[in-house]
Structure formats: C-alpha cells, structure tokens
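User: For my dataset I need records formatted as: sequence, then structure tokens, nothing else. Please produce one.
Assistant:
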Amino acid sequence: MTRLLLLGENVRKVLLGAVLALALLLLSAVAVMRLGIMPVTADGTHSSLEARIMPMVLHASIARHASGETNPGPLNEDNLKSGVGTYKAMCARCHSTPEGNASVYGQSFYPPAPQLPKGMAQYTDAQLFWLIKHGIRNTGMPAWGGMLSDEEIWQIVSLLENSQDLPPLVEAEWNEHKNKTGP
C-alpha cells in the first residue's frame, strides 16, 4: 500500500512538472509575441529553420487545398497569347520578364517572388490555379481571383506550364517588350 502511495505521489509530481513546463512555455511565447522580440522585416536575415520549413508548409498547404481539377481551356495559340498578355500586365512586375531578368521589385519581397518564366515544375496545374486565385498570405502575392476570371487564370497556368516550349508566334509575343512606345 505504501508503495502505491509513493507511485501515485511520483505520478502527480511528474504531471505537475509537465503542466508547469507547458505553462512556462506558453507564457514565454506570449511574452515574445507581445514584446516584439521576433524580427518581421523583409530585408533582414532569416533563420535557416524558417527557410527550410516555410517552403514545405507552403507546398503542403497548396497541395491540400487545391482541387484535382484539370485545365478546362484548350492548349492553343489563342489561349497562350491571352496568357502572355495577362502575365505581362499582372505578373511580370514581380515575377520577371520572359528574358529571365530578375525583377528588383519582386526580389525585395520575403520570400523573394519566384522567377516564373523558368517554370513552376513543383506544382500541378490545379495547384498553380489555386495559388494564383487565392494568393499567399504575408508574401506580397495577392489573391487574383477577385481581379481575374477563372479563364484568365487558367490561361496564365497554361503559359507557365508550357513556357519552355511555346509555338513560334506565341514565343515572339512572349519575348516582345510590353510597351514599346510607353514610358
């Protein structure tokens, strides 16, 4: 009987220690958040842990939320040309031009905006569609679903997925400067 009482007493001490450790951890987390200790600048250095974890979290979230839908638009020159026009108007400022010159603007974000003309092989068509339509919180990537139609988003997806193998007329339009006469 004494042995059972000692065992019960030890279990209580362990549980009390675990609860106190958890409470201390939560209190520390609240203190860090409320005191502004965590760096939030986009131009500062970032931990290697953050650099390793965030891409995995991003890809897993996109894979989970994107449907298995396939691109409903036909892969033809008209849709690819429309994708080129929309990309140049809405995407190139952050994600670079077809020449592959990195956008200074897009590189100032954290994380830097990916250079899309090189392709996005790690994502399926449905995942790219979801990413463009819904955006990515706290990165500067807006949710284009309120500004572009689903058809326009699918045209951009078609362009990105096929940017390394475009028909000659689309390739010419893709490599043409957006505004030859503009400012």
